[in-house]
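HUMAN:
Sorry, I am quite new to this. Are you able to go through these amino acid letters and fold codes? The numbers rather puzzle me.
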Amino acid sequence: MGVVADASSSVVEIKVHGHWSQQLGEQIIAGLELCLAGPSEAIIMDLRDFSDLHGLSLRYWLAAQRKVQGGALPVILALCMPPATMLGYRLRHHDGNSLPLFATMGEARAAVVGRLRRSHRWQTRLAPVPVSVRAARGLVERACDAWQLHDLRQGAALVMSELAANAVEHAGTDFVLTVLRRGRDLHLAVRDGDTRYPRLVESTRAGQRLPITEGGRGLMLVHAVAARWGAIPAHGGKVVWATFSA
């Protein structure tokens, strides 16, 4: 499977390759669970290179649908596949199935984006210069004030500062900041043009802990303060995200 996200990682595309097997089905469910741990609002499964001659994977797609809809905030799930397949036929004629099916990724993206809420999303693009770290922090503080998430304001602003500092120091590219509210969760995301993932490393020498250099405090601080955090590929770069729960 291949995974790629948009700038905010709220829309995730999972491309599935190869022939159907139970092992592949389990990988698909596991991949969905990882995506659901982050700020995903919609997941598009690209099945154009997926082979299931007899539609035997039906129950896994129905299980995936139940999984994305079973949380406090349901996630949109859409499938992209050739129209004349047995799996598509079985999905379209299965009782109670409401999985949207699309012939092209363009159609799937347009349909999914049209259903997303934009009122609880703040986003901006910044240059890789030190002053952008302060601007990133300010964006989170203003968003928390507007949404009355005062208890999350300090921790979220601190974590966004670290993620922005990491983008300035290590990626060296323009980066896009997103602050997203979903129910009682606050999601932060930084999308930069560097495909290298951040590494959570705590080094020691002769029993002494070495300083963590990234942003002054580093990912250890993000790990300690955020409820969840992670990284996901994006087109031409990556998204690093962190979640806070009110």
Summary: Confidence is low (pLDDT under 50) at residues 203-216. The CA atoms of residues 223 and 229 lie 7 Å apart. The helical segments are 22-36, 58-69, 86-92, 105-115, 131-146, 150-171, 219-225. The two ends are 33 Å apart (CA to CA).
